[in-house]
Amino acid sequence: MSLGDSSRRREGTSRGPHGILVGAGLRPSTLPPSRGFPGGGESVAGPEEAPAASPLLEDLRRRLRAAPRGVSRRSREEEAAEAAREEQSRARVESALARLRAELLEMHFQNCQLARTLLDLNMKMQQLKKYELEIASELQSSEDNVVNME
Fold first, then answer.
1. pLDDT value at position 144?
2. What is the pTM assigned to this prediction?
3. Which of 24, 53, 58, 89 could make a disulfide contact with 12, Cβ separation 3.0–4.6 Å?
4. Which residue stretches does the UniProt record annotate as biased composition, category Basic and acidic residues (predicted)?
């Protein structure tokens, strides 16, 4: 029970079937049956069975009958267009991923080449240091021999 329900009770109104407000003295049983609703006695009839109605009501009925076909056709077309866009998007993503994979493989290959080059340079530097130490050692020993001879 909401706040609005208590004020309606004081005014003598309440909710009837289908949530329609019913004033004091008017009960759903005293209202004429409605077409197309439970207890209305009639089903929704085509335009040939319907009593003469205003042009606005006829226009609304025509639009309601035409809407499901137009909506379903449009929704199928929209779904097909959406599926095509998604497929194109997936293709672009797959293409970008393939390019990135190729670049990563190339970078990996270059990284291995650089690592080999650095290892080779390090080995040559070690050999040069060893050679330098040998030369320095030979020079020292020859200087020592010269000093000892004198």
1. 77
2. 0.40
3. 24
4. 1-13, 74-90
